[in-house]
Amino acid sequence: MTPTDRVRVGVLASGGGTNLQALIDATADPSHPAELVVVGADRHKAHALQRARDASIGTFVVLKRDHPDRASFDRAIVEQLQAHGVQWVCCAGFMKVAGPPLLEAFPQRILNIHPTLLPAFPGLRPHEQVIEAGVRVSGCTVHICDEGTDTGPIVAQAVVPVLPDDDVQQLQARVLRMEHRLYPMVLRWAAEGRLQVRDRTATVHLRNGESTTLFGTDV
Ligand code: GRF
C-alpha cells in the first residue's frame, strides 16, 4: 500500500491517550490501511498530545472557552481536521459529544470507544455505574457517533468479567486492555471500506476468523 492510498484519520482526545497509543502502534506499519495524520484535543494538558508529538503526528488544540457557542467550537475542530485531509475520525477519550457540524462534515465516519457494553451504562463514570449495578460482565464498545451520548450504531464489542472485589481501577484496567485490541481492529475495517451503516445499523464485512465480538480471558 503506497502512502497516498492510506485512509487519513484524525483522532480526538482529552486525556491520557492510551487508546490513541494503541492506534498509533497499530498504524505504525506503513502497510496498514489507515494513517493517523492529526490528533486534536480540547485541553492543552491532554497527554494524548505528547503521545502524538512523540510519534511525529501533527496536533491541534481547540478550547471551548475561545468560542461563543458549541457550534463554533465544533466548526473549529472540523476546519482543523479538514485542513489535514481527514477522512475518518476516531474519538478516543474525547470528553465532548460530536455536535452537528462534526457529524455533517464526517457523516457516519466518526468512531467512538466507550468502556461499557452499550447501550448499558453510557455517559460519565461508566465503571462506577457498572460496579454499582452489580452486573457480572462489562466490556467496551466501538460505535459510530450520532447526536446522542454513546448512542450510535454499535460496530464491535469486547466482554470482560466483573469480579466480586473489583474496584474502579481494576475494572478499568481490564477493560482498557480490551479497548486497545478492539479499536485498532475496527479502524482497520473502516479504512478497508468494510464497515457500512444503513438504517442506524452497522455492518462489517468480515473475513475468515474475524468477529465483531472479543472475549477477554485474562483477569
Ligand atoms: C477510555 O476508557 C475510553 O473508552 C473512554 O475514555 C477512556 C480514555 O482513555 N471514552 P485513554 O485516554 O484512551 O487512555
Structure description:
The chain has helices spanning 18-27, 47-54, 70-83, 100-105, 126-133, 168-191; strands at 7-13, 34-41, 58-61, 88-91, 110-114, 137-144, 154-161, 195-198, 201-204, 213-215. The protein has 219 residues and is of the alpha/beta class. It folds into two domains: 1-107, 3-Layer(aba) Sandwich (Rossmann fold), CATH 3.40.50.170; 112-219, Formyl transferase, N-terminal domain (Rossmann fold). Helix 1 links the parallel strand 1 and strand 2. Helix 1 (18-27) packs parallel to helix 6 (168-191). The radius of gyration is 17 Å and the shape is globular. It starts with 6 loop residues before the first strand and ends with a strand.
Secondary-structure class: alpha/beta
CATH superfamily membership of the largest domain, which one?
Formyl transferase, N-terminal domain
- The sequence of SSEs as H and E is EHEHEHEHEHEEHEEE
What are the segments in which pLDDT stays under 50 over at least 5 consecutive residues?
A: none
- Strand percentage, roughly? 25-35%
For the CA atoms, what is the radius of gyration? 17 Å
| Sequence of strands across the biggest β-sheet | 3-2-1-4-5-6-7-10
In whole angstroms, how far apart are the ends? Answer: 37 Å
The percent range for helix content is 25-40%
List the defining traits of the structure above:
binds 5-O-phosphono-beta-D-ribofuranosylamine, Rossmann fold, globular, 219 residues, eight-stranded mixed beta sheet, 2 domains
